[in-house]
Amino acid sequence: MVRSSIARASKAGSAPARVSPRAVREPCPPAPSSPAPAGDSANAGIGSTAVEPERRRGRGAQSNASGRYEPIARIAFDDGWQSLEDLPPFATTVTIDTARKVITRNESPDIGFDRSINPYRGCEHGCVYCFARPTHAYLGLSPGLDFESKLFVKPDAPELLERELSAPGYAPRTIAIGTNTDPYQPIERRHEVMRRILEVLDKAGHPVGIVTKSALVLRDLDILTRMAGRNLVKVAISVTTLDAKLARTMEPRAAAPSRRLEALRQLAQAGVPTSVMVAPVIPAINDAEIERILDAAAAAGVQGAGYVILRLPLEVRDLFREWLMANFPDRFRHVFKLIREMRGGRDYDSTWGRRMTGAGPYAWMIGRRFEVACEKLNLNVAKARLTTEHFRPPRQGSVQLSLF
Question: Which residues contact 370 (CB under 8 A, 6 or more apart)?
């Protein structure tokens, strides 16, 4: 029989303690100084937050520890009846998110947009390094396996977008989509929220920049081609590695590298401005592939490129440590030694201007290698500039028509 041990979680800076049914989760991962071998099925689930491999097949995270705001934590353990094996696997569930607004604003000085749209919360791609994982803690869920299995969809996003674009005084600027969770993750095939958002933006003549690692973007090639003809869209696809095995380990439900490159080729052929994102760059894991990825992308016809150093905010640090220990135990110390060299001796530095590129000699070397490769391949010679000159606010039934 499976029992659980419930403990109060004492977290600095947490929200006021409040007991609710969804506040009962697993505890935080082990201290970073001694990472647990989460991939060890002999210990998984017994007095720890690790989950047996069979229950998390096709997932990126190794555990499902509670978020930082939860006052109660639950640890599953076997009381001698050997029934942990009867626990069900983590199945994907989709819940309706009744949002009131869909455009999110930001004032970050080190990113090139001030507004974005996230059609989904959580992401089934399961990328273990995803810096958006901590956002699931706001929902009372785990940034671990919950993030990639308990998903939320905003089915009214196109209608909400139409209403916000038609609001008096709205000033158009490029909207970024895919900067948090992937708009073309697997559940988009059924819900088609992203396609309907693009239809609204196309009709309104509003510019949009898309980031994805899915070949599903080709489904909307008809809309993207029309928008590209008016300088209203650009698409960036993230290619983390050319090694299919490594990609499946890091990004278990994302498109294979070959499919992403093919998507870039078809987009470029259709006249859609395209870029490749070498992101994230993980020292001693995929940093040796920077030049090869850029070369393959240039051959596919992309015009631009960018890169981001691995980011480990909040719970992502421990999730990545577990993954690294399970898959590359021999590289564990070396990887974190290099990470700390780029982060001022810490696992992460959130300082604006440094969080994306890091600092120090190793970070400089990665940046210089990237620049030299781009110069050699004629990437980033000219940047695609989108326009707002075609923007016309959508007309809604509740809005009084103009007399002129």
Answer: 278, 290, 294, 305, 307
Beta bridge partners of 25: 73
List strands edge to edge, sheet with 233-238.
103-105, 115-117, 175-177, 208-212, 233-238, 274-281, 304-309
Q: How many CB atoms lie within 10 A of CB 261?
A: 22
pTM: 0.85
Q: What is the pLDDT of residue 374?
A: 98
Residue boundaries of the structural domains of the chain: 92-119+154-238
pLDDT value, residue 6: 44
Query: How do residues 366-398 score in pLDDT, each as one tens digit?
Result: 999 999 999 999 999 988 899 999 999 998 654
SS3 for 184? Answer: coil
**Residue 223 pLDDT more than 60?**
yes
DSSP letters, 196-257, are HHHHHHHHHT--EEEEES-GGGGGGHHHHHHHHTTT-EEEEEE---S-HHHHHHHSTTSPPH
Token code pair at residue 283: 């020292």
**What whole-number distance in Å separates Cα of residue 74 and Cα of residue 26?**
4
Q: Which long-range contacts (CB under 8 A, 24 or more apart) does 386-390 make?
A: 386/174, 386/207, 386/208, 386/209, 386/231, 386/232, 386/233, 386/234, 387/207, 387/230, 387/231, 387/232, 388/172, 388/173, 388/205, 388/206, 388/207, 389/205, 390/205, 390/230, 390/232
- Six-digit token string for 380: 């980033």
Whether the per-residue pLDDT at 82 is higher than 70: the answer is: no
Task: Report whether pLDDT(266) > 90.
Answer: yes
**Predicted local confidence at residue 41, as pLDDT:** 41
Does the N-terminal peptide bond of residue 280 adopt cis geometry, omega within 30 degrees of 0? yes
Which ranges of 235-391 would DSSP assign to H, the alpha helix? 244-250, 257-269, 290-300, 315-327, 332-342, 361-376
* Contact between 137 and 69 (Cβ < 8 Å): yes
Question: If pLDDT is split at 50, 70 and 90, which confidence band does 399 have?
Answer: very low
Q: In whole angstroms, give the CA distance from residue 75 to residue 77.
A: 6
The position carrying tokens 């919360």 is 121
Mean pLDDT of the chain: 87
Tokens 């109660």 correspond to: 72
Q: Which residue from 194, 208, 222, 160 is spatially nearest to 391, judged by alpha carbons?
A: 208
In the predicted structure, residue 222 carries a pLDDT above the cut 70 = yes
Q: How far apart are CA 226 and CA 54, in angstroms?
A: 45
Token reading at 99: 């949002």
